C-alpha cells in the first residue's frame, strides 16, 4: 500500500502541493488529472523523491520513505517513468535495458565470481532485456544508439527500463505524450497487462480523458495543488469541479 499523508511543498510563498493525503492499493490503477499547473507532476516528484517535501510523509507498506533519496525509493519499490525521457543517450537500446535489468537482479555480475558464472549470468540478463524489447516493440532497434531514436521509440524504451526494474508501484507521467497514433497503443497495451497483476499499484498522470476512462479504476483530481475530487471515473468526470477545470483548459487553449 502506497500512502501520502498531508504531503506539501512550498516554493517561497507558492504552495504547489497542499496537504494531499491518499492511499493507493495494490491491484488498482489511479489516474491523477487536473489542468496544467495543477501540481500533478510535482506530486509525482514528491512521491518518487525528485523533490523534498516541505511537510508530510510518503509510506510504502507502512515504511516511511520521506527522508530517502530517489535512488533509495526506487530500490524500495517505487518505479517512475518521466514526462521527459531519462535515458543513456550514447549507449544502445539493448545496453540501456540490460543495465536496468542488471540493477534489479542479484547475481555473479555483482559478486565477482568465476568467468563462467559471470558469462552465464550476463546471458540471462541479456535474455531478459531481449524479452522486454520484444514487449515494447523495440527488438529491431536493439543495436541503435539511443540518441538516434525518434521521440516515440525513446518513450517506449523508458517504459522498458521501468519494467526492467520490476517495481511494486508503477508511476507513469503522460506515457504517450509526443507519440503518434500508431505508437501510443503499444504503451497502453503494456499498462493494460500490468493492471492484470494484483500485486502492482499503478499511478497515471494523463490529460487524454479517453485513456483515463478506459484504464482507470479511480480518479483523483488536483487543482491549484489541492485534492478536490476522488472516486470512480464516471462519477469524478461528471463532477462540476472537473468539468470546470477542463473547460478552463479548453478556453485557454482556444
Description:
This protein has helices at 40-48, 70-76, 93-104, 108-111, 115-135, 151-164, 184-195, 209-215, 233-237, 240-253, and strands spanning 2-11, 14-24, 29-33, 55-60, 63-64, 78-81, 169-173, 201-205, 218-223, 226-231. With 254 residues, the protein is of the alpha/beta class. The chain has two domains: 1-77 and 170-180 and 200-254, Rossmann fold (3-Layer(aba) Sandwich), CATH 3.40.50.300; 78-166, 3-Layer(aba) Sandwich (Rossmann fold). The strands form two sheets. It has a six-stranded mixed beta sheet with strand order 6-7-8-3-9-10, sandwiched between helices. Strands 2-1-4-5 form a four-stranded antiparallel beta sheet, with helices on one face. α3 packs parallel to α6 and α5 crosses α6. The termini are far apart.
What is the tally of helical segments?
A: 10
Largest sheet: 6 strands, mixed
Q: How far do the termini sit from each other? A: 40 Å
Mean pLDDT, to the nearest integer, reads 85
The CATH homologous superfamily of the largest domain corresponds to P-loop containing nucleotide triphosphate hydrolases
CATH architecture of the largest domain: 3-Layer(aba) Sandwich
Strand content: 15-25%
Outline, from the CA principal axes? Answer: globular
Amino acid at each position: 500500500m502506497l500512502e501520502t499523508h498531508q504531503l506539501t511543498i512550498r516554493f517561497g510563498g507558492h504552495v504547489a502541493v497542499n496537504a494531499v493525503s491518499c492511499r493507493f492499493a495494490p491491484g488498482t490503477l489511479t489516474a491523477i488529472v487536473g489542468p496544467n499547473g495543477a501540481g500533478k507532476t510535482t506530486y509525482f516528484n514528491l512521491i518518487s523523491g525528485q523533490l523534498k517535501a516541505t511537510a508530510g510523509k510518503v509510506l510504502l507498506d507502512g515504511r516511511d520513505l520521506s527522508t530517502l533519496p530517489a535512488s533509495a525509493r526506487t530500490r524500495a519499490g517505487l518505479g517512475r517513468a518521466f514526462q521527459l525521457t531519462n535515458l543513456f543517450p550514447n549507449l544502445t537500446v539493448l545496453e540501456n535495458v540490460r543495465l536496468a535489468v542488471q540493477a534489479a537482479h542479484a547475481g555473479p555480475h555483482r559478486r565477482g565470481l568465476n568467468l563462467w558464472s559471470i558469462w552465464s549470468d550476463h546471458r540471462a540478463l541479456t535474455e531478459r532485456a531481449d524479452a522486454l524489447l520484444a514487449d515494447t516493440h523495440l527488438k529491431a532497434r536493439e543495436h541503435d544508439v539511443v540518441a538516434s531514436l525518434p521521440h516515440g521509440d525513446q518513450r517506449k524504451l523508458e517504459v522498458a527500463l521501468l519494467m526492467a526494474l520490476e517495481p511494486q508501484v508503477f508511476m507513469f507521467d503522460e506515457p504517450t505524450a509526443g507519440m503518434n497514433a500508431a505508437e501510443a497503443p503499444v504503451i497502453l497495451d503494456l499498462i493494460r497487462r500490468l493492471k492484470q497483476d494484483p500485486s502492482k499499484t499503478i499511478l497515471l498522470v494523463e490529460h487524454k480523458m479517453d485513456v483515463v476512462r478506459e484504464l482507470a479504476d479511480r480518479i483523483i483530481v488536483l487543482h491549484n495543488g489541492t485534492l478536490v475530487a476522488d472516486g470512480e471515473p464516471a462519477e469524478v468526470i461528471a463532477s462540476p469541479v472537473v468539468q470546470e477545470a477542463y473547460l478552463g483548459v479548453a478556453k485557454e487553449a482556444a
